[in-house]
Every structure is written in structure tokens, then in C-alpha cells.
Amino acid sequence: MGLIILFILVLLAFLLSISIGVVSIPFRSIVDAFWSFDGSREQLIVRDVRLPRALVALVVGCSLAIAGCVMQALSRNDLAGPELFGINYGAALAIVIAMFVSGSASTYLFASSALLGAALAGIFVFLLSSLGRGALTPIKLVIAGSTMNLLLASITQGILILNEQSLDTIRFWLAGSLTGREMETFWKVLPIMAIGLIGGLLISKHLNIIRLGEEMAQGLGQHVFYIKALCVAVVVLLAGSSVAIAGPIGFIGLAVSHLARAIAGHDYRWTIPYAAGAGSLLLLLADIGARFILPEQEIPVGVVTAFLGAPFLIYLAQRKERAT
Fold it and tell me: Any idea which GO molecular function terms this record carries (predicted)?
């Protein structure tokens, strides 16, 4: 019943995202945009601007939320998010290098290079965490991810300083935005997201065991290394494809995981479906709010999620400190 209610709320938010914006469009024109399209300005806005934007918010919010759940279960850290794998900075560095070499700033170049950079960064962090004595542990993962984030961010900033044109072009993408996304690129990246979503649902029962600790999981007959490798693959596919489409949108993976557990409990077979719906709902609502915060001007949705997520992160850190 809870999932049905959540699905209805997501559907309403999706319809609301298509219906409202800076430009006021009558409801009749919105209906005609799908059933009797005549090429008018209002119908073009609905079909070519608002509908793609709502679709991107729907799938990106869902993907980031599931990636956050998997990341927190893998690291056994409630403050972890997909960004811990260096995915955001890996994608940003790949885009900057591609622009610096080719001199192009096409949307397809952004998406393809971002996806490649995110995947390479995530895989490298996983391999780095697996080196040395003992298996991959949460503390090794956190250290490797934080180190890689700093390294990639430093290299990216260094290249941007040398090339101001790249800085001007990439600035809006780095803020995380759903506007101006080409549907051709979206449809090319969507199968990668779908694989990640299916993988996240399939490994949900294993996350319950991984969450208990490595020794407990091994005692229950689980192949811990392979499960962790699958978790890394799911996070890279979901978060990497999300960054490729919309840029680095923060706090969705972190916050939604806690909201889903508060509703569904700690059974990831239920937490992940709830997180998927809640992530889509939160990003759709944040994108709607981004259209009206400043009059006659829209701000990137990544700014809105950061504004909402920062107090939540402070609250989680203080609660974790009181618990210890």
C-alpha cells in the first residue's frame, strides 16, 4: 500500500512538472500537445522542454537514490553517498579533458565522456580499496574514495585554470541541471540505467547480509568479494549514467536512503523500491521549486538539492556523534 501511494505521488509530481513553469500554459494546450499536436509555442514547450526535463528528473532521482542505498550498505556508513567513489569528479575530469582536446562542447560529448570517466573512477577506487592485507573494508573504501576525490578535483581545477573557455562552458553542468538535455542522448544512456536498476533490485537481499559485516556474511556462505564487486558495478552504472545526463546532483543518494529506511525499515528488499520512488519524487519537486525561487530566472536543480541536503547532512552527523 505504501508503494502504491508513493507511485501515485510520483505520478502527480510528474504531471505537475509538465504543467507548471515560468511560462503559463493552459491545461487544454498541455493535453493537445500529446493528442492533437499543431506545433504552437505552448505545445512545443510542453513536448520539447518540460516533458524531457520531467523524464530526466524521474530516472535520475530513482537511480541516485538506489545508488545511495547500495553505497551505504556496502560501506556500512550512513553518511556515505555515490560521490564517495569519485564518480562526480571522475566525470567532470573526463569532460574537461574531452573539451580541452577536441574543442567541442556538444551534449553527446558531455554524456559519453562523463560516463566513461565515472566508470573509470569507480573501478579504480574499488581496486585501490582491495589492495593490501585483508579484504575490502569500509574504512579502506572511505579512505580510497576520499583520496581519489581530492586528486581528481585538483587535476580538474588545474585544467580549468589553464582553459577559461572550458570553465565557462562546464560551469552550468557542474552545478547539476535538468535543462537543455537532448532526448537522443537520454535514450542512449537509459539502457545503462536500466541494467543498474535491475541489478540494484536483484542484490537487495544480499545487502541485508553485507550490512551485518563481512565475517557474518562469510559465515552464512556468501561470496563477499563478488557481492561487493556487484555493488560497485551497480553504483557506477546508476550514478555514472545519472551524472552523464544531468551533471553532479548531490544529496539525493544520501538523504533518500534515510527516508526510505525510516518508512520501510532496514530490509533492503523493501528499502530499495521505496528509495527509488522517493528519489524520483524528491528530484521532481526540487526541479519544480528551481523554476520559481528566482523571478524570471531558473536556477540549477543541483543548487536546490544542496540547499535542502546540507541541513540534513548536519543533522545526520550530529545524530551519529550522539550515538557514539
Answer: transmembrane transporter activity
pLDDT tens digit sequence for 68-125: 898 888 877 777 777 777 887 888 888 888 877 776 667 777 778 888 888 888 888 8
What's the CA gap between 289 and 304, in Å, rounded? 8
CA geometry: angle 38, 43, 48, nearest 5 deg: 115
6: cell is: 508513493
- For 242-268, the pLDDT digits (tens) are 888 888 888 888 888 888 888 888 888
Residue among 216, 5, 243, 206 at smallest CA distance from 118: 243
Q: How many CB atoms lie within 10 A of CB 88?
A: 29
For residues 257 and 233, give the distance between their C-alpha atoms in angstroms, rounded to a whole number: 18
DSSP-derived secondary structure letter, 84: G
CB 90 within 8 A of CB 236: no
| Cα separation, 98 vs 92, whole angstroms | 10
Gap between the Cα atoms of 246 and 56, Å rounded: 8
Rounded-to-integer distance, Cα 137 and Cα 135, Å: 6
Q: Which of 1, 20, 21 is nearest to 12 (CA)?
A: 20
In DSSP notation, 22-83 reads: SS---HHHHHHHHHS----HHHHHIIIIIHHHHHHHHHHHHHHHHHHHHHHHHHT-TT--GG
Return d(Cα 272, Cα 201) in angstroms, integer.
7
User: What is the C-alpha separation between 319 and 120, in angstroms, rounded?
Assistant: 34
Enumerate residues 6+ apart whose C-beta is below 8 A from 273.
3, 201, 264
What is this structure's pTM? 0.88
CA distance linking residue 226 with residue 314, whole number of Å = 34
Q: Give the SS3 label for residue 294.
A: strand
Q: Which of 209, 181, 230, 220 is nearest to 55 (CA)?
A: 181
Task: For residue 111, give the amino acid letter.
Answer: A
Residue 115 · residue 90 · CB < 8 Å:
no
Nearest to 280 by CA among 73, 8, 33: 8
